[in-house]
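Reply to thread "Modeling small-molecule complexes from scratch"

Following up on the discussion above, here's a worked example others can learn from. I took a protein sequence and the SMILES for UAG and predicted the complex. Inputs first:
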Amino acid sequence: MRKLENILANVSTKSIIGSVDIAIDAITFDSRSVKSSTLFVAIKGTEVDGHNYIQKAIDLGASVIVCEILPIDLNQEVTYIQVENSNEALAFLASNFYDNPSTKLKLVGVTGTNGKTTIATLLYNLFSQAGFQVGLLSTVKVMIGQENFPATHTTPDSISINKYLAQMVDTGCQYCFMEVSSHGIAQKRTAALDFNGGLFTNLSHDHLDYHKTFAEYRDVKKSFFDQLDKKAFAITNADDKNGEFMLQNCKANKLSYGLKNVADIHGQVLESQISGMLMRIQNNEIWVQLIGSFNASNLLAVYGAAINLGLSEEEVLLQLSTLKSVSGRFQYFVSDDKITAIVDYAHTPDALENVLKTIEEIRTRNEQLITVVGCGGNRDKTKRPEMGQIASEMSNQVIFTSDNPRNEDPMVILSEIEAGVEAQNVRKVLTIEDRAQAIKTACKLAKSGDIILIAGKGHEDYQEIKGVKYHFNDYELVQEFLKA
Ligand SMILES: CC(=O)N[C@H]1[C@@H](OP(=O)(O)OP(=O)(O)OC[C@H]2O[C@@H](n3ccc(=O)[nH]c3=O)[C@H](O)[C@@H]2O)O[C@H](CO)[C@@H](O)[C@@H]1O[C@H](C)C(=O)N[C@@H](C)C(=O)N[C@H](CCC(=O)O)C(=O)O
Ligand SMILES: Nc1ncnc2c1ncn2[C@@H]1O[C@H](COP(=O)(O)OP(=O)(O)OP(=O)(O)O)[C@@H](O)[C@H]1O
Ligand SMILES: N[C@H](CCC[C@H](N)C(=O)O)C(=O)O
Ligand SMILES: [Mg+2]
């Protein structure tokens, strides 16, 4: 239970009608979960306007309404707080309600188009192995120390974030590593958090359904770094063309990492095999168990963050060499018939190109590369032909298939992917809508020595079709088909 007046700190209010000397048992932005003594925040969403549910929230017992537009008829027993931006108000209310847990541990946010889950998870693993109690908020899972919770979003809503952070503080976590998605920044889910550090990975084509222009997407990402204060560190990718831009006007202690360009933390890939790479980080040579120059770049970011959080270089290098790849990220096995199957979460043109380049680098003989890939429904459509072009250009055979069609017609998505295939590559293409059949076909086509890449779903254990999530896991299936 909290006093309303105590949770209003840093909330920029336009007007308050009613008493602030009242007790609040819960806060929510969903009228369907309102109970007595609940504070309800009305949010204009992408589907509906939460302001339309104010009366319903009051009927269910809400005692405080936070909104951008006041209702015409006011209820005498309810306190109304009018704010400029409901999402931002919610972020501060949630932080205050849970006693500002982000100030009680070292919180590091990772943002960028690709690599967030990889970096946040590697940092979680590194600090856990080094003996600390650590928290993780990621696309794949939430971890509170060693306890595992399912993740619903890459960056949860601000109430969930603060609830998790408070649990982390209660169980003695000293660090939390979290992914900061562009939706999360735009919807102010992270606006009230006290970050000790921020990391930028890269910026490429994604989410242009939501952000409309690439410049808007870029500016949203930058606003995360604008939020960092002087005591924080901000580490950017010197090899990304937007790396420098991200830290313009940033007040934090700025650092950069890079494999190509001059950077504070410099690295190089000296040798690669499917089992790992020999890397140079600053002046040290180490063997790591991840592959691909994009992962070398991720490891430099991990190194930079770990050093800035106070670990010794010796300890960091020792831990880096023991880190394994993250679930669904270049997860591979070699079958009894010597077919290599790789499952990867590449769901953007840039990620797909990187993974295919990495496979190219480790191909030793004239093996055939068969790629199975699709694109999600109700998401950025403009990446579909780009992914079609890349997959067909860089593979010997490609099978286009469904990846979470959601509410779209899978055949329409597939035709948009096929539209990107250049004339000389058309003969390489098969289209099989059913993803299980597509994977099975790839397994039948593959001969000893060949490589199968199944891209787009990584760790996901479902296929989402018209609002229903059916159990589906690429890795499980390919293992089953290659054994059979
Ligand atoms: C497009 C988007 O980001 N939507 C998110 C957003 O929902 P919204 O505000 O648009 O919701 P809405 O349905 O229009 O409803 C508006 C308001 O009315 C309220 N309402 C609605 C109905 C009702 O009966 N009563 C009621 O009070 C809702 O609770 C809400 O507050 O805010 C919700 C609460 O935080 C999120 O759950 C929801 O995520 C949806 C499920 C989603 O799919 N989000 C994806 C796109 C997303 O956020 N992805 C990023 C990762 C992307 C990446 O990096 O690749 C992520 O961080 O996960
Ligand atoms: N630094 C990187 N640069 C480019 N591609 C990368 C990088 N790191 C990982 N990838 C590719 O992107 C895929 C997704 O990686 P990861 O899950 O770490 O990204 P993410 O940013 O968390 O994605 P999401 O936005 O879905 O949460 C990987 O499977 C790999 O193919
Ligand atoms: N976080 C990403 C995941 C995409 C994964 C892909 N399998 C899909 O469903 O499009 C998104 O919501 O855009
Ligand atoms: Mg992620």
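What I'd highlight from this example: The longest strand covers residues 265-273. The chain has three domains: 2-97, 101-320, 331-483. Questions welcome below.
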